[in-house]
Amino acid sequence: MRWNNGARLLAQLLLGTALLAVAARVSLFSQTPIQPPANLPASPQVQPAPPRYLVMIDPAHGGSDAGAALNPAMPEKDVTLVFARRLRLELNNRAIAAGLVRDGDITVSLDQRAGMVNSAQPALYISLHAASEGSGIVLYTAMLASNGEDRGRFLDWQTAQSGALVRSRWAQQQITASLEKTGFPLRSLIAALRPLNNVTVPAIAVEVAPTSGEVSQLGSVDYQSMVCAALANAIVPIAPALRQGTVP
Question: Is the pTM here over 0.85, yes or no?
């Protein structure tokens, strides 16, 4: 079939118009955002998981590190483990989840202890010690060096406690006030006591000594129960603030 010039021109115009229309529709489709249906439910907000333990208890020493020889038959590592297990029981009985850094006669370095606590992020860390001298309980919080150097989000290991120190000392004060009401012999101090300075959560150390002057009292179930019940009772009132991570 032969096309005259007029017909050929008309055909080209029609084809060009059709192509422009298709291109415009494609461009409009690609630029129009796709709106989700209005009746779709909103995505649920993901809440951070609460810490597995509210309190982590760390019986000092263990394994190859016997600690102080309280008497020939009573190394400190055994006494701290007994007290730690008893304190865990007393806290659990009061609906406060508590766990142990070590639950056996194993060697755990100070850096490993701090690393475990920083990974678990409990609301309160308690390092337990025992002594043959003194009387009753001594509560410690960290004494930090003044020359710590944080690098961005990386904390100086020797002053990692700095961000939690206010809460640590608040917890120390509250526990001290509670124990003083019982008439139990008590002192509250600050000390350069590792691994408190390496821990990023509120942290205290508790040193238990006999009140009778006899080291054998540390092995008494009645004494262990009395000390740990008093500590647990002191922690219960501050548990809500510990959970929220704030100081009233």
Answer: no
